[in-house]
Design brief:
Radius of gyration: 21 Å
CATH class of the largest domain: Alpha Beta
CATH architecture of the largest domain: 3-Layer(aba) Sandwich
CATH superfamily of the largest domain: Glycogen Phosphorylase B
Order of helices and strands: HEEEHEHEHEHEHEHEHEHEHEHEHHH
Number of strands: 13
CATH topology of the largest domain: Rossmann fold
Strand content: 5-15%
Largest sheet: 6 strands, parallel
Shape: globular
Strand order of the largest sheet: 10-9-8-11-12-13
Structural class: alpha/beta
Helix content: 40-55%
Length: about 350
């Protein structure tokens, strides 16, 4: 599963391309080896391969240089995330520029002192900037309200109804339909809360397997510790996408999302759209996305999570069809792409006449 920002960029940009816009996406060289067209968009890998913590700044500098050299080819630049804005904000001198906040990276304790300080500096630049801006959750936009001279528009993330496959994915992983709980994350870092789930699991020792769909090649200290401390019955599934991921979500007894720091998680939204029941930590951002769906529990509390797991095993937490319909309508990628289209057209100075559609 790709990271949340990458999924959001792909879903929005593919729809902008389908609407007739020419879209260029600058990507990490680790994600794609050479320029190619993906879902109608030109994807250009830029920046040297290096340590993971250098990927974003190196890629941002390389992308900003490329945009300057080809400035006549673009109408507007859209910077996704506040941290790269620190290095790319100078593009506003040559092209209309807009920025979307996908969260506050400085809140992640695992990021390290230097990265958190750089993230705080980037947020200060974002707050002082008059450029058009959006945020992926109302909670996040509210944090900026009154602190930023220019307004921050709320444009949510979307949820994907993942296509079903043959249903064989759980079996290939040694899992029985309905006989496992599911944890999904594109990264194994402490804020995602896998250690909390392991603690709650040991408190109960439930008669279920625990499927962990997350990178298995991660050699960080936290990822290695999680593999050592995994309770019996844990199945490491690796990163899954498409039909395999959809089947794994739908056939789980329930899914668990214990993350403590999010803006609006794509993993949570996809779980809410595809899994029968989802337990989630009740941070303000998660409650904004999941209210009326699933089973909330107090963030960081393994006993509360264990109680939620007991409730889920008894069949609690399933939402009504009306609530699910409302959730999907509020997180529809087509509507979200249309909102971004209007946002970017305004940023570029293409203001439609009153009452006209864009």
């Amino acid at each position: 599963m790709a990271g949340g920002v990458e999924i959001a960029v792909e879903e929005v940009c593919a729809r902008l391309s389908a609407s007739g816009h020419e879209v260029t996406v600058y990507a990490s060289p680790g994600a794609i080896p050479s320029p190619s067209v993906h879902r109608g968009c030109l994807v250009k890998p830029l920046g040297p391969r290096g340590a993971a913590w250098l990927d974003m700044p190196l890629r941002t500098v390389a992308a900003a240089r490329d945009v300057r050299l080809a400035a006549g080819s673009f109408d507007v630049v859209h910077i996704h995330s506040v941290d790269p804005f620190l290095l790319a904000r100078g593009l506003s001198a040559v092209l209309p520029t807009a920025v979307t906040s996908h969260g506050q990276a400085w809140r992640l304790g695992s990021a390290g002192l230097l990265r958190r300080a750089a993230s705080l500096l980037a947020e200060r630049a974002f707050l002082a900037s008059p450029l058009p801006a959006s945020a992926v959750s109302k909670v996040l936009a509210g944090r900026y309200a009154g602190r930023r001279a220019a307004p921050v528009e709320h444009i949510p993330n979307g949820a994907r109804l993942l296509a079903g496959g043959s249903g064989a994915a759980p079996g290939r992983l040694g899992l029985k339909p309905g006989g496992y709980a599911l944890f999904v994350s594109g990264r194994l870092i402490p804020s995602k809360g896998l250690h909390l789930l392991f603690r709650a699991w040991r408190l109960l020792d439930p008669p279920l397997d625990l499927a962990v769909a997350a990178p298995t090649g991660d050699c960080s200290a936290y990822a290695l510790r999680m593999r050592r401390e995994a309770p019996g019955g844990t199945k490491w599934c690796g990163v899954l996408t498409g039909q395999g991921l959809g089947d794994l979500m739908r056939m789980a007894s329930f899914a668990v999302f214990p993350s403590g720091i999010e803006a609006q998680s794509l993993a949570l939204l996809d779980l809410l759209a595809n899994s029968p029941t989802v337990l989630y930590s009740s941070t303000p951002e998660n409650v904004e996305a999941a209210a009326g769906l699933g089973i909330p529990f107090s963030p960081g509390d393994p006993e509360a999570l264990a109680s939620g797991i007991e409730l889920a095993m008894k069949g609690g937490g399933e939402a009504s069809d009306a609530v699910r319909t409302g959730f999907m309508a509020g997180h529809d990628w087509d509507s979200i792409a249309s909102a971004y289209e209007s946002f970017l057209l305004r940023a570029a100075g293409f203001v439609p006449p009153a009452g006209a559609s864009v």
